[in-house]
Write a structure and sequence with these properties.
This protein is of the alpha/beta class. 64% of the residues lie in helices and 10% in strands. The chain has helices at 2-9, 15-37, 39-48, 54-101, 104-109, 112-154, 156-162, 166-203, 205-210, 214-266, 272-313, 318-321, 375-381, 405-409, 426-430, 439-448, 452-456, 475-489, 505-519, 554-559, 563-582; strands at residues 335-342, 352-359, 364-368, 390-395, 398-399, 412-416, 493-497, 523-527, 539-544, 547-552. Mean pLDDT is 81; it is low at 576-583.
């Protein structure tokens, strides 16, 4: 109920629409009751007394009531759905804004498909609630009240008999509602699993095809889909069983009305018109009861969806957790690590232990080590993708914890092995971090990254629309666009994470030239698989199991009988063997 109360708060900007919907729903309810009341004069005044005036009045009244009821019903439905759609739009926007502000740690633990399911599937369930539940709760409840008034107006004793079955109608609503909520939660979680399979498979469709795993992936999706629809069918069976129960229980009231009302007619205490008017009102009541039952089931599903959505919205975002208060506009690029330690799991092993480093402005520091040594983790601490568990990282002597995230990351450029390109033009991709950049600035950055030439050969040049992930470009071309993006941003500190490891020799040569333009006068952290690319680094740091085991320039490290020399010689031998095999 707390989540549903939070949902009601979204109605505040649309209170006039809600008031209008309630008024129109009330008018519709009263007109529905008027239809039931008209049965009495139709039978008594028209068919029994044969009043000629009623022959004109009653048809006109029926048509007028139907017309007004249709107009008010349309206005009620439109206003409710308008408000519901607007609210869901607002929740989706709020949810998306919040999700992209959540820390990297949260995204690492939650699948992309699950988050997509939150934004679309869960909000869709809530939209059904706003569009149908609010409509039914208002209109059907008011209709029920109006028809109940007609019953008591016609015959209070008979109305009491008709309403004897109401307590029995509440039981299936409560009983099945709880089960539906549990099933709705399971269904929504399973929808997230399906989204995850879809996102994962389609994102790696080349790998799927290369290894001939289409049948396996189809089977995996089929299994997840089967679990999903099994839950849907179970929820549907519980939802539908309430209808025959309501009809069965309702029949008891109708039987009692016929028995008692028939006796009243025989005794002359009730006219046939009054009896059939009462019966019409009674029969019309079961429609709103069914509507409220369906609304209750949708309300349970919406409650389950709201619970998941608000759990995500209540997760603290990066700005909410940001301890930084100092805004920086420029940095020289000096970086120090003072006894820094870190672990992805607070109770698990340390990934980094007692890291001490000092990098002067404009220097290039290369990180070397076997896979899992902690190189990427170390550089991920600089833009505060993760927070260090112990120790301090400082930029220009300022602890980065005290610098606001936005201003800190504005001082850092990142070029990684996996280039992130969006389904937009080349110009838009280069200017992604600088949306206000001019065409001349974009082209100058592309020239510095050695990308201008291949862009110029394209039919639409910088206005060429990239396909998914830049699939219409080569690996070297994608990498040069990423470098152009970093050059345009012009940050004082740069992180290169395996930026050339996936390229062929020719592409690597061009990208290296682009990188040389990029790193000029910048403090640079380089993670490189090929040691030949970092021999000119100001300092090389060798890492092993989260610790620094060696540090120095290439020549100094080669003179030692240490880890770096062994890695370098092993890689040199592998390169010679590769060339001999290729020859």
């Amino acid at each position: 109920m707390n989540h549903l109360v939070r949902l009601v708060a979204y109605l505040k900007p649309y209170r006039l629409h809600v008031i209008g919907a309630v008024v129109c729903g009330g008018v519709t309810a009263l007109l529905a009751a008027a239809h039931a009341w008209l049965v009495k004069p139709v039978l008594d005044r028209l068919f029994i007394e044969k009043d000629p005036v009623m022959l004109v009045v009653i048809p006109v009244a029926i048509f007028g009531i139907a017309l007004l009821k249709g107009l008010s019903g349309y206005a009620h439905t439109y206003l409710v759905r308008f408000v519901g759609t607007r609210i869901i739009e607002e929740i989706q926007n709020q949810l998306y804004r919040h999700v992209i502000l959540l820390p990297i740690r949260y995204h690492a633990k939650n699948t992309t498909g699950g988050l997509i399911s939150h934004i679309f599937y869960d909000t869709h369930m809530m939209q059904a609630a706003f569009s149908s539940v609010i409509k039914d709760l208002v209109q059907q409840s008011l209709t029920l009240v109006a028809l109940t008034g007609v019953l008591f107006y016609q015959n209070a004793a008979l109305a009491g008999i008709a309403l004897l079955g109401v307590p029995l109608l509440i039981w299936p609503l409560v009983r099945f509602g709880k089960r539906l909520k549990r099933l709705a939660q399971g269904t929504q979680e399973q929808a997230g699993n399906i989204m995850s399979v879809l996102q994962e498979t389609l994102a790696h469709v080349r790998v799927v095809k290369a290894f001939g795993q289409e049948a396996f992936e189809a089977h995996r999706f089929q299994e997840q889909n089967r679990h999903f629809y099994r839950k849907v069918i179970r929820a549907m069976s519980i939802s539908e069983v309430s209808r025959p129960l309501i009809e069965t229980i309702s029949s008891l009231g109708i039987a009692g009305i016929i028995w008692y009302g028939g006796g009243q007619i025989f005794a002359g205490a009730m006219t046939p018109g009054e009896f059939f008017s009462f019966m019409a009102a009674t029969m019309m009541m079961y429609g709103p009861v069914k509507g409220l039952s369906a609304a209750g089931h949708l309300l349970q599903q919406a409650a389950a969806a709201a619970e998941r959505i608000f759990a995500t919205l209540d997760t603290p975002s990066e700005p909410m957790c940001d301890s930084g208060v100092r805004v920086i506009s420029t940095l020289s690029g000096a970086v120090t690590f003072q006894n820094v330690s870190f672990g992805y799991d607070k109770t698990g092993p340390r990934v980094l232990s007692d890291i001490c480093l000092s990098v002067a402005p404009g220097d290039t520091l290369a990180l070397v080590g076997h896979s899992g040594a902690g190189k990427s983790t170390l550089v991920n601490l600089i833009p505060r993708f993760y927070e260090a568990d112990a120790g301090e990282i400082c930029m220009d002597g300022i602890p980065i914890r005290k610098i606001t995230l936005a201003s800190l990351r504005n001082q850092i450029g990142i070029v990684s092995q996996e280039v992130a390109l969006f389904d937009a033009t080349i110009r838009r991709n280069i200017a992604y971090g600088c949306p206000g950049a001019t065409d001349a600035q974009v082209e100058a950055a592309a020239e510095a990254a050695y990308a201008h030439l291949f862009i110029g050969k394209m039919a639409r040049g910088y206005d060429t629309l990239l396909e998914k992930g830049g699939s219409n470009l080569s690996g070297g071309e994608r990498q040069r666009l990423a470098i152009a993006r970093a050059i345009l941003k012009n940050p004082p500190l740069l992180i290169l994470d395996e930026a050339t490891s996936a390229l062929d020799t020719e592409s690597e040569f061009i990208v290296r030239k682009a990188i040389m333009n990029l790193v000029k006068n910048r403090t640079t952290f380089v993670i490189a698989h090929r040691l030949s690319t970092i021999v000119r680094a100001t300092c090389i740091v060798v890492m092993d199991q989260g610790r620094i085991v060696e540090m120095g320039r290439h020549e100094d490290l080669m003179r030692r009988e240490g880890c770096y020399r062994k890695i370098y010689q092993m890689q040199f031998k592998d390169d010679i063997a590769y060339r001999q095999d290729a020859g």
